[in-house]
Design goal:
Radius of gyration: 31 Å
């Protein structure tokens, strides 16, 4: 073993001495001087030397078998209980998308780097670049919108209503308690195609309301604005056109920073004149309903800007449709909403939960926006060789942030979550009945019934029944010598502990009947 340590040190001198014993070895301290020179180990046989050399080829962190490593920052594992809740959230979101006629779509987890650059403004620095693997510069997708636009252009699709559920990656500082991760899931719905103004946009907002209401997260508000109105405000306030995107990015921080701090960033960091920043402040601190839209129409400066008037006209029409959908009271025209992504061209929106929780026992959890989206009419044209545009509008549901709220609620109320969907457990009170249990469970599986059994030849009946109670399995079928002789199966309700004898040929029908009634 001493020879092995010396050989390891010779191969990898910069790593220093490393213990080659598994952590499970009782006297291993990790220090070669104290535990790797044990005389009782004796000489290593040929096969042991092969194992040793295999260890020598690994990085030192992998040598001690018992070492435990955490996952990378901004990511997490999901337990079976968490997966149940997460899947229910996603299932509800997707069922809403399908109710509105969307088709499913998937795209690769990584794209050509050139496809993603210059699409996200200041956030482009958050894109994960992959190491060059032979000529292609690749990056992990930052969102699901840009890959969708690339798909439309590449396949010359002019009209599509699609949904997409998938992971995205961003190199931002994770805030786990608020559901902010570097790897997270998005659920997107988008409508691509040339249609009459604001009808698809109104449907997107209706979908947002349906999902947030259905998830019962508490009261919420959807902020709405239009990038043309913002650009009009910047123009009439005197912002140079070259600074529009930079100033828009500052305004986008008003949900996290005070106006005083945002103004300081505009002036001190982005070189905007103080008087121009003050004029912007007069606008972006306003919010209201359709009456604010009318007020902006009468504004002496803004009413002179063509872009702003187009945006205000669309918002007025949008509020008419939202009223017909019965959701206008959930919508606020908020001039501070900017949505920092560069590809937005028209209406933008963002849903936030109000601080009042759904239940009195809960503490308010500030997770920021839980859904957002907008119109991006020029993005597809950026991927088309001839620049052909396909107008698009869509929304994205923030699954991780919603899950953070649901998870907190589960902890507050101590809710128990079933991690399996097993409907029937096949049990026996006697020994040597494995073959009969296997034949019986095969019948249940073939009939589409979700069933389990214990992986033991001779399990104790009490152990089997306790397992059913702990896992929330509603029914148990019991087969033994007496049942086999009489051609029946005992069907037991776990909740009431009542048992009835059912003929074997009627067992499946009786189980299906009970499951349909529960």
């Amino acid at each position: 073993m001493v020879l092995g340590v010396r050989l390891y040190s010779a191969l990898y001198p910069s790593w220093g001495p490393v213990c080659l014993l598994p952590r499970s070895f009782a006297s291993c301290s990790g220090n070669p001087a104290s535990c790797c020179t044990m005389p009782q180990l004796g000489l290593l046989h040929g096969r042991a030397w092969a194992v040793l050399f295999g260890q020598l080829r690994r990085p030192p962190g992998a040598v001690c078998i018992g070492a435990v490593h955490s996952h990378s920052q901004g990511t997490r594992d999901l337990s079976p209980q968490q997966m149940v809740v997460r899947e229910k959230i996603i299932d509800m979101v997707v069922s809403c998308f399908k109710r509105h006629g969307a088709k499913g779509l998937d795209t690769p987890a990584f794209e050509l780097k050139e496809m993603l650059t210059e699409k996200y403004g200041e956030d482009s620095g958050l894109i994960y670049d992959l190491k060059d693997q032979g000529g292609e510069l690749l990056s992990l997708r930052y969102d699901l919108t840009v890959p969708f636009a690339r798909y439309l252009a590449m396949n010359k699709v002019k009209k599509m209503k699609r949904y997409h559920v998938g992971n995205v990656w961003r190199r931002e500082s994770p805030t786990i308690v608020q559901g902010r991760y570097r790897e997270f899931c998005q659920c997107d719905f988008d409508i691509a195609g040339q249609f009459d103004p604001m009808i698809p946009d109104a449907e997107c907002l209706k979908i947002m309301c349906e999902i947030l209401s259905g998830l019962q997260l508490g009261d919420f508000l959807i902020k709405v604005n239009d990038r043309r109105i913002l650009d009009g405000i910047f123009a009439v306030c005197g912002v140079p056109e070259s600074k529009f995107h930079a100033i828009c990015s500052s305004v986008d921080k008003l949900d996290k920073m005070s106006w005083k701090d945002v103004r300081h960033e505009m002036v001190a960091k982005k070189g905007l004149a103080a008087e121009i920043a003050d004029r912007i402040g007069d606008y972006v601190q306003c919010h209201g309903g359709v009456s604010l839209v009318e007020q902006m129409f009468q504004d002496p400066r803004l009413s002179q800007n063509k872009q702003a008037l187009e945006g205000l006209g669309d918002l007025k029409l949008l509020f008419e449709y939202l009223t017909l959908f019965g959701i206008a009271e959930k919508i606020s025209f908020d001039l501070s909403l900017a949505r920092g992504l560069d590809y937005y061209t028209g209406v933008i929106y963002e849903a936030v939960l109000l601080q009042t929780p759904a239940h009195a026992e809960e503490e308010p959890l500030n997770v920021g926006s839980v859904a957002a989206g907008g119109r991006y009419d020029g993005l597809v044209g950026m991927f088309d060789p001839k620049g052909h545009k396909v107008p698009c509008v869509g929304l994205s549901i923030g699954v991780e942030r919603i899950f953070s709220i649901v998870e907190q609620r589960m902890k507050t109320f101590g809710e128990n979550i079933r991690t399996t969907e097993t409907q029937v457990f096949v049990a026996t009170p006697q020994k040597n009945f494995l073959q009969e249990r296997l034949k019986l469970i095969a019948e249940l599986w073939d009939a589409g019934i979700k069933a389990e059994l214990m992986y033991k030849n001779n399990p104790k009946l009490l152990t089997q029944l306790h397992y059913c109670e702990n896992m929330g399995i509603p029914l148990v079928v019991i087969i033994g010598e007496q049942e086999l002789k009489e051609g029946v199966i005992k069907l037991r309700s776990v909740a009431s502990r009542e048992e009835v004898a059912i003929t074997r040929e009627n067992l499946v029908a009786e189980i299906q009947k009970r499951l349909s009634e529960s």
